[in-house]
């Protein structure tokens, strides 16, 4: 019999014993075995002298007048026995005498003859008075310690959850890529091989990352228990863990990663290592469509999913240039100054998207998005009103001047540089807004989630609004300036002096370097919910 086997059987036999009593008994017998080994005894001799775990449990229940299920009723229940295990090695072994050879040692005698320890005296009213008098000192320390412990606890929970989520993500992603490869294997074995290799590698990474979940959770649990015990060590006997399963699991994970990389490399080699070839998208070509402008020179452009760039036309003609492919042809229409361009490759239906992935490859949407770009060329001095609406994609306009411009993007940033406008309105739901070198009568920049950047903007009225993001200003000049940020700071520089502005500045959580004033030819209103206000004035 081995030591760990004996202690495991003892723990099982002591089922129903209070945890503290159980751990003391287990620790007692563990150290007894270690001491016997130090004296040169073999395991066979040690366990021949010791009682069986079941006998130890029966003796404990007899001594404490507890039932043992009738298994060991033949033992003497009347003789007195101590209720607590010894507390230290010194008390336990100072009176130990090596028995004569050939005589069976009854360890219960050693266990029983040690005296019980007296109960500790509890503190009286003096300790209570000390706690009350030192209340101003220990309360802040207690709050700091509690906040620190809570932070560590939250970090530990986050680490455990992160490791588990990453493990599940790798596994689901690997299985998904392998399954979806069978839909494209008949059309392109190379793409299928690249996807299968990537899937196998992801499953291997799943096994490797999962090795961190158990130790992370156990370590966090041990640390939490240590904190709740008042930074005292546990009396539990550490049970040795077998590392064979962990080594095997790591070996399998590494093997899968290596095999997956090899299969993926074979597939990518067949595709000439061009990532744009890892999806069936057909042939791409550049397509040019002429935009017929109406007499009133108002132009409206709408698109569902593409990145749009607006530039001045060199030949004086309005035209739209974009990439098109045979598998997902774009739809273009132009009527009465209204231009519509649909990408033809996106759908909001989940199952329709999965069908496209099955027949064209997992990475088809990534490849298509690279070619979902268009350039709109506009002639100078022929456009009075311009309206741009893009559902998913960024909008960039450079060196273009129109009387009225309205730009809207559902998901993507908007950038306007070097232009003159009567009214310029820019809005995006998710993305930043950047306006640079702008001259206008009125400028309005709005975003729900993103920052707003204004640089060298001169306008009678300048308004910037964001729900979640900062507002950055650089040499902005205007008669009426209004800036609002729900969660973010407002900082930068304005042209002029402090006394030129009638200032109203308010922040709920944050610092502010501006003071409200009642005089000034210009108006400056700044509001933030959570963020600082730091604005300087320059000449």
Structural class: alpha/beta
State the share of residues found in helices, binned by percent. Answer: 25-40%
Instruction: Indicate the proportion of strand residues.
Output: 25-35%
**CA-based gyration radius:** 39 Å
The gross shape turns out to be: flat
Low-confidence stretches: 67-121
Instruction: Quote the distance from N terminus to C terminus.
Output: 90 Å
Write the layout of secondary structure elements.
Blueprint: H1 3-13, H2 19-38, H3 43-49, H4 53-63, H5 89-93, H6 107-112, H7 125-133, H8 135-181, H9 189-228, H10 244-270, E1 284-290, E2 298-305, E3 307-312, E4 319-325, E5 331-335, E6 338-342, H11 350-360, H12 364-371, E7 373-378, E8 385-392, E9 395-398, E10 402-411, E11 414-430, E12 433-449, E13 452-468, E14 471-476, E15 480-487, E16 490-495, E17 501-509, E18 522-530, E19 533-538
Helix pairs in contact: 1-2, 1-4, 8-9, 9-10
Explain this structure.
- There is one protein chain.
- With 539 residues, the chain is of the alpha/beta class.
- The protein has 12 helices and 19 strands.
- It has a 19-stranded mixed β-sheet that branches.
- A hairpin with a 2-residue loop joins strand 5 and strand 6.
- Helix 1 packs antiparallel against helix 2, helix 1 runs parallel beside helix 4 and helix 8 packs antiparallel against helix 9.
- It is flat, with a radius of gyration of 39 Å.
């Amino acid at each position: 019999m081995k030591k760990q086997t004996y202690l495991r059987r003892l723990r099982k036999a002591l089922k129903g014993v209070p945890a503290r009593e159980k751990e003391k008994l287990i620790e007692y017998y563990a150290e007894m075995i270690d001491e016997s080994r130090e004296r040169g005894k073999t395991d066979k001799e040690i366990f021949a002298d010791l009682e069986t775990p079941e006998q130890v449990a029966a003796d404990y229940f007899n001594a404490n007048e507890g039932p043992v299920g009738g298994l060991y009723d033949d033992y003497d229940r009347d003789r007195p026995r101590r209720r607590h295990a010894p507390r230290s090695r010194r008390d336990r072994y100072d009176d130990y005498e090596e028995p004569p050879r050939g005589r069976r040692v009854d360890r219960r005698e050693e266990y029983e003859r040690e005296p019980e320890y007296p109960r500790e005296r509890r503190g009286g009213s003096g300790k209570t008075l000390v706690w009350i008098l030192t209340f101003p000192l220990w309360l802040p320390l207690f709050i700091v310690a509690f906040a620190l412990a809570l932070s560590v606890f939250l970090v530990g929970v986050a680490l455990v959850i992160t490791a588990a989520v990453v493990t599940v993500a790798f596994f689901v992603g690997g299985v998904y890529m392998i399954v979806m490869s069978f839909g494209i294997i008949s059309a392109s074995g190379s793409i299928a091989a690249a996807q299968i290799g990537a899937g196998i590698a992801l499953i291997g990474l799943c096994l490797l990352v999962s090795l961190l979940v158990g130790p992370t959770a156990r370590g966090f649990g041990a640390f939490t228990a240590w904190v709740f015990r008042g930074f005292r060590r546990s009396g539990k006997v550490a049970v040795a863990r077998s590392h064979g399963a962990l080594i095997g699991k790591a070996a399998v994970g590494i093997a899968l990663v290596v095999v997956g990389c090899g299969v993926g490399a074979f597939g990518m080699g067949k595709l000439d290592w061009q990532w744009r070839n890892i999806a069936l998208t057909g042939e791409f070509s550049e397509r040019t469509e002429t935009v017929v402008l109406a007499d009133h020179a108002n132009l409206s452009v709408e698109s569902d999913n593409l990145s749009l760039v607006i530039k001045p036309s060199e030949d004086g003609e309005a035209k739209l240039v974009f990439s098109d492919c045979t598998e997902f042809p774009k739809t273009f229409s132009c009527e009465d100054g209204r231009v519509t361009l649909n990408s033809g490759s996106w759908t909001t239906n989940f199952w329709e998207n999965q069908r496209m992935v099955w027949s064209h490859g997992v990475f088809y949407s990534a490849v298509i998005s690279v070619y979902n770009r268009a350039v709109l060329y506009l002639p100078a001095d022929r456009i009075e009103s311009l309206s741009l609406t893009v559902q998913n994609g960024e909008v960039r306009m450079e060196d273009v001047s129109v009387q009225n411009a309205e730009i809207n993007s559902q998901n993507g940033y908007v950038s306007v540089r070097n232009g003159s406008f009567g009214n310029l309105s820019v809005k995006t739901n998710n993305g930043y807004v950047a306006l640079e070198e702008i001259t206008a009568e009125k400028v309005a920049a709005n975003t729900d989630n993103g920052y707003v950047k204004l640089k060298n903007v001169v306008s009678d009225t300048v308004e910037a609004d964001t729900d979640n993001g900062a507002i950055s200003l650089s040499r902005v000049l205007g008669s009426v300036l209004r800036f609002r940020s729900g969660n973010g700071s407002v900082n930068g520089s304005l042209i002029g002096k402090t006394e030129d502005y009638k200032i109203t500045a308010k922040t709920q959580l944050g610092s502010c370097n501006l003071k409200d004033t009642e005089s000034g030819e210009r108006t400056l209103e700044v509001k933030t919910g959570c963020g600082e206000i730091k604005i300087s004035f320059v000449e």
